[in-house]
Write a structure and sequence with these properties.
With 189 residues, this protein is of the alpha/beta class. It contains 5 helices and 7 strands, in the order ββαββαβαβαβα. Strands 1-3-4-2-5-6-7 form a 7-stranded mixed sheet, with helices on both faces. The longest helix is centred in the middle third of the chain and has 16 residues. 32% of the residues lie in helices and 21% in strands. The protein has one domain: P-loop containing nucleotide triphosphate hydrolases (Rossmann fold, 3-Layer(aba) Sandwich), CATH 3.40.50. Helix 4 links the parallel strand 6 and strand 7. It binds guanosine-5'-diphosphate. Guanosine-5'-diphosphate binds next to helix 1.
């Protein structure tokens, strides 16, 4: 995919007309620090469309980025950062659950990003179950693959496959671009 334009449109915290304007949505979900911002930037060949390494847990909005005036990359807030207040955690959790369970919101694809070294959290497992339940077209991405050697990578992948009941995991590194083409093809083709 050739990216001609990429711009931040808006952040939402509840229902909004942007959800229903007819442009396809590609949504990204992941725990804080898994590299979600880096994966999105890598996909659209931008250095800083989404700010990398921002203070974890800061964003409690769902951010819409318009690409080529055609579709949205939808960045859901990162969850699971320990230092965030319980209220904020609840708010983030509810926002994600709302986006993936509201029957009127139908993203074209949802990408769930994991840090392959850290593996699945309970909320990741819950999310995957809901994605399956609600009939979403989703992709699980094991990011930061560059951090593990071959043997550890294989072990972690096995655990992730068992925990998610999913065979098809995209092995990815935003740093080395491993798996970047694979992910782009699965998303946009
Ligand atoms: P987010 O909180 O999920 O949006 O994560 P960020 O994209 O901000 O990345 C968190 C940290 O992980 C940053 O320091 C990134 O440079 C780093 N990072 C992201 N992806 C990778 C990767 O594939 N490999 C490695 N080694 N580091 C990564």
């Amino acid at each position: 995919m050739k990216v001609k334009s990429a711009e931040f449109k808006k952040g939402i915290v509840g229902t909004d007309r942007i959800l229903f304007d007819g442009k396809p949505q590609f949504a990204f979900i992941g725990r804080s620090n898994v590299g979600k911002s880096s994966v999105i930037n890598s996909l659209v060949n931008q250095k800083n469309l989404v700010k990398v390494g921002k203070k974890p847990g800061k964003t409690t909005e769902i951010n819409f980025f318009l690409i080529n005036n055609q579709f949205y990359l939808v960045d859901l807030p990162g969850y699971g950062y320990a230092k965030v207040s319980p209220e904020k955690k609840e708010k983030i959790r509810n926002l994600i659950l709302w986006y993936i369970t509201d029957p009127e919101i139908r993203p074209k694809k949802i990408v769930l990003i994991l840090d392959v070294k850290a593996g699945l959290t309970a909320f990741d497992e819950e999310t995957i179950e809901l994605l399956r339940d609600r009939g979403h077209d989703y992709i699980i991405v094991a990011n930061k693959a560059d951090k593990l050697n071959k043997k550890d990578l294989a072990e972690q992948l096995e655990q992730i496959k068992n925990g998610s009941h999913e065979e098809n995991i995209v092995i990815h590194s935003a740093t080395t671009k491993l798996g970047a083409n694979d992910l782009a093809n699965r998303l946009f083709n």
